[in-house]
Design brief:
about 625 residues, Arc Repressor Mutant, subunit A, 5-stranded mixed β-sheet, 28 helices, 5-stranded antiparallel β-sheet
Length: about 625
Amino acid sequence: MLAVWLGRLEGAELASVLRRRTLPSGEISDVYDLARALLTPDSLRRALVTLDRYALACIATVALAREPLTEDAVLRALRSRADTSVDAPAVTEGLRTARALALLVPGEDEAWSCPDQLAEELAQWPARGLPGAQELAVLVPPAVIEPAAQPDAGERDRAAAERAFRTLDILGELVASAQEAPIALLSRGSLPLPTARRLSESTGAELGAVMDVVHLAAASGLVRMTDGRLAAAPEAEHWQSLPASRRWLAVAARWLGETPPSLRQVLAARPNAEWGPSLREYVAWLFPAGGDWLPQVIEEFGRVALELGVLSGTAPSRFGSLLLAGTPEPAALAIDELLPEEGEKVYLLPDLSVVSPGPLRPDVERRLRRVAEPVSRGLAPTFRIGEDSLQTGLASGLDEAGIRELLTGLSLSGLPQPVDYLVSEASRRHGALRVSAARAEHAPAQTLVSAEDKLLLSAVVADRALAVLGLLRIGPREATSRLGPDAVFWTLRDARQPVALDPALREPGVLAPAPAHRREPGRRAAEAEDRVGAIVERVLAARQAASEQPSGDHSGRLQLAIKDRRPVRVTVTLPNGGSAEYQLVPTALVGGRVRGVDPAAQVERTLPLTSITAVTTVD
């Protein structure tokens, strides 16, 4: 049954099914292999665990019928069992979900069938403490969740907005750090403790909140986790240019969109509900097979809702309720009234520190970070200008005049003399080391490093931390490396050397903007074999090969036998050259194979058409 339906799917739809299901580990060569893999108990349990009650009720209803049912028949059966009204759209969505997961099979007569293996799996649920098919088919939800009390709503909303702003602050710092250089992750995809502590100290947030925000940033598309590193996504720059309320909405709406649809529907129907035991009871009813997955989802959902200010305590904030109700624009307007205004000016102090009188716009902060290192964030962020930060700005393409223009344009207190002096000194030192392309006579070297100061060049060549460059002294003021100019430049820059780049290498396409460890990480995942695509390709190839194989008139007779449900006697050639005869009741003919039940042996057989030499009808 399932193999026949899978055999009719086009490549894109077949791939969609596979992406929704846990991919089988065995070799898949055709639709029969695929159907068997999808109907194993483990595969079925993994598919059922995240289904909501309505999809499970549709599956259970078809399983109990033991015959194909139309959508109208499923709806009538559910309404006959439930004490409450069952909406037709809920049944339509449930059947659509079951089809997308290849759990129910639609027939040509618009009737739905349930594979025997799935019906058997549901029959075992009561023994595991789960609702059986009879119980699943009765859609009677728990009592309606009580609305939350509203004491001191204004204070609650202000506290929620403060928490939301702090989350935006952590997100901003995380994205900015990832833009400067991808962040190495631990094996489980979490931040190393030193990095998490730095973010925690600079933003004043708890370590747990920082970890939650990392996953929120990834779910929002602001960063990408690839090859064990966290890199800023191209969309992050646009997000940084938005006002605070729009940045919040972009993240919160994306987060809400990633939650299970049925849970979103529950919250949208009751946006002011208390997030207490009654909500947990309802969600447990809604996802009866949730197991260990369900409490984890609820806990994570509530934790992130608190960080975004959607939830304040155990009740939604006003802007959180508007978001949950499906009205994002009013939600953004509501939180905009509560968020602090972001500015674009700072104070430059003689001690080389930079103090902002309020939160900075992200685009302004990004400009400032080209020449100043962040010290603390929050409502009054601080930065510090130093030799290293100025060398970073000079290496990024700014010159002395450009740095002065940037600082003067942002400053409310002019350019203090110590800052002006440090800019001059850093500009004078910048380029003490110069990286250029090696000349032909230096082959096989690719890069030439030159310096006016012979002692500086000697120190760089002798530095063990820079041994990876393999610098070879070829003169008093010159050394070569077999590495490319981009790798040499960024390695020296990371070592805080006053290095400059030959202007000829700044032409587009000549020098990469950063080496592999600073750019967006390599995409081994994209280069690795796409298992879904490989399975689809093999299945389609098997289907095509079967259609091109000559099979005489055997397929026609088998099709008639399937239609009339009549037994046939099939003669097949064996691999050893002999032959065998089987009596079958054919059930399917797809992918160059006939599938049927052998009543004598009481087994199901699958035989390739190319091995069949004779088909006769059994009277």
